Structures are given as C-alpha cells and as structure tokens.
Amino acid sequence: MSLSCQNKSTTNKKEVIEKTGYKHLNFDKLPTSVKSDFLSQTRSSNVLAEDGYYIWGTTVLKWKGEYHAYYSRWNKKYKHDGWMTHCEIAHAVSSKPEGPFKFVNVVLRDKKTSGWDINNSHNPYAIVVDGKICLYYISNDMKPLLENDKSNMTYPDSSWFAENRKRLRNSQRIGVAISDNPSGPFLRSEKPVVQPDNIKFKNIAVNPSIIHHNDTYTMIMKGDDVNKKKWFRIQLVGTSSSPNGPFKFASKPVYDKAQTEDACMWFDKVLNKYYMVCHVMRKPNLALFNSENGTDWQLDERSVFMKKEFTLSDGTKWKPERVERPFVLTNDKGQPIMLYVAVADKNVNGNIAIPIKLK
After folding, report:
1. How confident is the model at residue 150 (pLDDT cuts 50, 70, 90)?
2. 3-state SS record for 252-312
3. What is the C-alpha to C-alpha distance for residues 146 and 116, in angstroms, rounded to an integer?
4. Count of other CB atoms within 10 angstroms of residue 167
5. Is residue 182 within 8 Å of residue 68, measured between CB atoms?
6. What is the rounded average pLDDT of the residues 170-195?
7. I need a labelling partner for 214 at 20 to 30 A (CA). Which of 132, 144, 244, 252 fits?
8. What is this structure's pTM?
9. CA-CA distance, 209 to 55, in Å (whole number)?
10. Structure letter (DSSP) for residue 194
11. Is the dihedral of CA 62, 205, 122, 132 positive or negative?
C-alpha cells in the first residue's frame, strides 16, 4: 500500500508540474551565516569565495557522484576591472551541489604561451557529452591588435591594457576546451568557436550558454546589435553538430526590448521544453524565458525567475549591490535543483548557491 501511495504522489507531482510549469518554483531561505561567510570570504555551504581573489560566475556539473565547479577568479590587486585582463578559470569539487567546494586546480590560465587566447580566461560554461567535458569560455583575440599597432610586444604590459581597454573589449571571443577528466588537462580550440560576423552581431562574441540535445549543440551568446551605433548587447541562438562549431546563428535576437546577458539554458525533459534564465541589465530581477524548439524564445509565464535578493532564515532580506551570472543546475530529468549567482557587495565578489524547490 505504501508503494502504491508513493507512486500516486509522484504521478500527481509530475502532473502538477506538467500543467503549471515553473509557476510554483521557489527558493529555499539561506542560513543567516551565508551573508557573514560571504563578506568575510569564508568558503562554506552556499558560499564560494576566496580571500585575495574576486570570483565572478560559476558553472557546475555532476561527474561520478561529485559536483565540480569551474569559476572565474582574479587577484584583487587588479580590482574589479581585472576580469577582462587577468582572469583565470579555477576548479573546485564538493560532495554536495551547494558545497562547500574545495579548490583543486586552475584549468585555464590568464596568461598563456601560445594560441589565439593568450590573454584571459573568463565566463566558463561546462557540459558533459559522451564522457567528455566541454568547457566554453571567453578570451581576448588580441594578436591582430598588436599587429595593427606594429608592436614588437608578444604580450602587453599594464600600460597597454589600460590604454586599449575599449579595443580589448571588442576582441573578446568564445573558445572551448575539452577534457575527459574534470581536472584536465583541457585541450583548447585552435581558433575561436564563435566570432562576430558583422551581419547578425558585431564587436564581441561572449558569455556562452550551451546544451547538447538531440545530437545538436545549441548555444545562446551575447554580441552587439549591428543596427545600433553604440554598444547594445543582444543575445542570439545558434546551433552546431560539433562542440567546436561552426555555429549557425538565427537573425532574430532572443530578446531585444532591453539589453540582456549571462544566459543559462537547459532542457526540461518532463515539460519537453527549453528554458533560459538571464540577467536583464539595470533591472532588479533575473528573467525566465522558454522555447518549444530552442530557436524561438518568449518570456515565460513566470517572467521573473528570481529577484536579485536573498531571503535569510531569520526572515531578513539581503540585497547585494550586484547579482548576475545565473547558472541553473538540473537533475537527470532536466529540472532545476540549484541556482548559482555571482554576487558583489562591499568590495567582495563571490558566488552564492540557492536550493530550488519545484512543487
């Protein structure tokens, strides 16, 4: 009888989710210690922070029963601006999705001796396909800049970085590094996987989010709108049969009524639908979109995925200065179980993990 009741309960829950989607999705309250741990840069459950480093954005995957986090970090001496020039991608592991995560190694350095991506490694996004980890990231394809300057430098110094920040911003491209071990070594792509075509988007190709479904790699990434003179960030969706591309991008932006970035995409097998949460610039919320085919997107009925604030166990609200870079970890059915966000508050950068509940 108990088994019958359990099956009925599971079936009813599935039926409710199928009918309501994520309408009743909610987030756990966080222990009050999360805020103090974050501000003191103490690694703990729900907090990924490091003394002496800024951390900005995390991607998490499950591998042989453990959870592996890949995250952007750079030395605090470079201040927040160091994300563009002195960032590396670190790797940490935990037995639980919320952590605490223990540092293992650096998988992609900020300064490399060869390749198109000799400067910077930022905004990681990892997926597992056929027993291999595909780690997407952004880097600066700056060799053409040095060649145009007829510079004898093989690697810029601090003054060059300071004087050429806008040009460097527009040299950002997407690459992929592949390994069959979470700690690497990772084999980096010989050339950018995505770069601007100046037809659908211009200047930059950054902030990739990617899933592998039905033998297809589907990516959402950010570029500048070719129809606007000033920088205006839009997100476009592209597909490929290979992790290394080429990716064919649709002309229609995912959303063009406001500037958006930092997509995280997943496919929910229960709802048979693609979902994407992203940061809408200068808005107090993270937005939720859905798609039937992965190409045509619209705001979900639950348009606000989460407010950019956290509810603590004592009922108080913590509203950090910045909450960005959402990453949603899903279970085997493709349903959300954990949200990770990059947080900046009181000169501390780190990552917060918030458990998700689906009613």
Report:
1. confident
2. CCCCCCCCEEEEEEEEECCCCEEEEEEEECCCCEEEEEEECCCCCCEEEEEEEEEECCEEE
3. 12
4. 14
5. yes
6. 98
7. 252
8. 0.94
9. 19
10. B
11. positive
